[in-house]
Amino acid sequence: MIRQGNEIQIGSLTRMTFVLSLGVLCFLFFYFMQPYHLLYEEQMQLFLFSSDYFLSYLSKPGGLACYAGDFLTQFYCIKGAGAVIITLTLGVELLLLLCIFTRIGKRENGLYAVIPVLIEWHLHLSLNYRLSSSVAFIFALGLFLLYTLINKQNVAGVFSLVITPVLYILIGGHFLTFAILVIIFDITRRRLSSFPYWLLLIGGCILCPLLLREHYLLTIEQAFFYPTDRISYFLPTLSLIFLLIGYIISLQKRSFRYQYNEVTILFIIALGLTIYVFIHTDQNKEKLLTLDSETYFNNWEKVSTKAESFQMQNPATTYFTNLAWMKQGLLADKLLSTYQPFTNGMFIPVGPRSTPLEILFSGEVYFQLGDMNMAQHATMLAMIFSPQHRSSRLIKRLTEINLIIGDTAAVDKYLRILDKTLFYSDYATGIRKIMQEGDENPWLAERRASIATYDTLRMASNVEASLTMLIKSNPQNKAALDYLLCYHLLDKNISGFISVYDKWYKNSEYDLPKLYAEGLLIALAQQKASPKVLESYKIPNELTTDFLAYTKRYQEAGGDGTELQDQYAKSYWFYYHYAQMKEQ
Amino acid sequence: MNKLITYLILVVSFCSACNRPTNVRKTDSLPPIYPDYTNITIPVNIAPLNFLLREGITSSEISVQGTHLSFTLYQNEKVQFSMKRWKHFLESEVGNKVTVQITAKSNGEWISYAPFYWTIVPEKIDPYLSYRLIEPGYEVWNTIQLCERNVETFRERVLADNNLTDGTCMNCHIYGNQDASLSMFHLRGSNGGTILNRNGELRKINTKADGQISPAIYGNFHPSGKYAVFSTNTIIPEFHAYRNERLEVYDTESDLIVLDLESNKVFSSPLLSGKENLETFPVFSADGKTLYFCSAPAVALPDSIQTLKYNLCSIAFHETNGSFGTQIDTLFHALEHNKSACHPKTSPDGRYLLFTIADYGTFPIWHQETDLQMIDLHTGRLDSLAIVNSDRSDTYHSWSSNSRWFVFASKRDDGLYGKPYFSYVDKQGTVHKPFVLPQRDPTKYDDMLKSFNIPELSKGQVPFGAGDIEKIHKNVPAESVSNR
After folding, report:
1. Which of A147, A211, A268, B124 is 20 to 30 A from B394, alpha carbon to alpha carbon?
2. Quick one: chain A helix, strand, coil %, rounded to 5?
3. B218 and B77 both lie in a single domain
4. A391 located within any domain
């Protein structure tokens, strides 16, 4: 740092090093810490190269910023591209802010400009924060910088009055950023002080969204903040306003001590806001998105390994873990080796309070098991509740589902859409090839083998009906059979379990996993089965002996599970006796 | 500067010349156009029938040859007509059969396809079409809009948007006598009600009277505008399992009611509200003296869903005192045809009754076999409308006020997303091949992920907009109704 009189300045070299370090840190952060989050953002949008798609952006304010932001977001599917794009976006923001501070202060200073950028960085941790917001912020800053370069007062006045409503149409809610910065700049510079000018500018800022909101079909709140939907997304603007006011005031004070205090206070405020945003970012989401993406890409071993390493106890993690085990043929062997929130880790129930992520996750199990209608329903729901109601990943999934059920007209519909994308037209070509191959394609043949072969009606929540239908359609669908048996066991529905077991599993060629044997022992004990019946289940003698020992110790302990925990914690018997659902 | 302009003109001329057909190969097949606008009958007031040329076509020459006028366009795979030229052409060729000849370049080769024809009839279609745009999530909604499209141009206006009504569900918009000054739709949710538009004056009515199964569901206006008839239903959505069967929606109970819109009194008849039968889809005849509806004997559901087949019935209605006849007549016997009837709609001239048939049930929208059929009410002749129907769902129809056109929603393109198709009914009662609502950009249907629900034609523009619906939703309490 170089001290010049009472001012603090950061030297050019120091500043450049600081900015570059920050850039590298930002890139590394998004590259290593948020790759699945960025992939999710790309997967939940569908960017098309068509005129009709472009025109659809004009139906809401901020069309230019949204189009530019979504255009860039489509590149997130390339590894590292998302991290580069966000880093560059934040870099441009920082550059503009540095120019603005330099322009206002007539000197270089990088200390203040970095705070809004840091806040923006943290906002990008939110799944709902779109790149278009950053693009809109950049547009607002760029035009404000241009405004500060206009020396003629009348020209500046006309410029601000004309550009403000235009900006609203082009960048949406961040037009306020431009207008507020203009107001602060003009007040502190005492540049434009005519009452009609202020009336027009401020009135324009208020009236523009209010007058256009009916055209854009937005509520009052949405009209002011679109494309973002919450005030916290304007924290970079708010911090910039605080900083600018403080900075301008400090420039007018001679006392270094006074200036130092102002900056410190503002710095603390901005830092506080930053920490607030950071704390409210759910770090577990990246882990869940990791499991979700790897599941989508059929990397089953990776899913189970990652899930184990994350050590998270929630239904979604268990859901992906169970799915991965099922695909590896290990569901019954591994089921009780991890947290099982009853049946909530088998299927994710979807209701009015479900989050978009839960809805997105919920369809995967049906797709993997072969219930294509429920998979389609869940996929449609996920798309309806995705941020932009169209998603490349979900369109691909709908294509696959319709391909499997043989609805080629629907497949064609989706392929035509994917043809218009930059990154999925090759996928469309691949699907067309599979369509030509038909059942000769191993993937398609395998998928078609597991789907329903007869019709039935069931409620969306009736997973038992779904699994039973799949097993009846194809008794070789062991995944569905395991799922149904495990579902009954987790539900402590022993009669349901043994009924399914007797019908579909007992006389099959499948091995008897320990979990099922433990469940059978409970069922047979409840039925007071004869030794002959017990024998027919081919349960290992050691396990039967162990069951008797467990029962004896259970009775001796008077139902107290602590004494049994060491030896039997991973047994179904222990789960059956002691697992309880915590009230949420 | 002059040189530059000359060069530019030369370059443009050269490029244009490059796109003129040379070494043309002839074929007997029709051009691969989407939407299918080949050999159709169109009204003189329809918007330009813009279309796409598929199968890798990159350049095209479109010659449109009428009796009095003709023109040729040179375009790429997207063929769009100028509005002014189109309007002038249709007006000049009204009553004539127009020939469209397409020569197109595909894989470097120019191909001259078999010509197709447009018959331009003087009977206009009602200029406005309302519909609900919704993702076919088949039981859940997020964004819903009720829209009004001018079919003479491409202008679309939003009548209601659930973003402005707290995300509530809204049902489709229907007119009385195809008149925009009388219309209604149901707005669900806590602040909801049936929104009634009478000359632009909006009312919100809570249509559930004591003892009713539910608020009003399927409805229709009496021609006088004094009454509206509704079904009240307990609706159960369930999912199919097999291949592209998707959703089934059935009623476990349903009755019919009539609402006097002036006194807010509700009344019915024991013949229309028994437990033994499920009555639904009520609609008045053109003269208002008959009430048509669908009725099926109640069966155990969902187990016997495939035996749930609705008859098409009628009962007399007396407007003066709001009373019903004492006898129910059956126009279409479900068991005789082994089909289930839905959505009857009478033509405004009282001549025809258009309805939907499906294998079973009361929700034909996801039944692929769903077709339209038409009864000539003068002769009783049933027309299976073979030229209109497709191998996918064709349903949710509405008449134009002159009874010469009807619109319906068809999933014929992809089986998932319904689109509005128009068919012409000539004076002899012959129905002509349908065509889809034209769009300014013909790729619109390709990119669209929403269905057009319940398209309804009207003579004029509806006198309210989304802002008015937002206000009545937020600020106006619903009027209550009571039993007469």
Report:
1. B124
2. 75, 0, 25
3. no
4. no
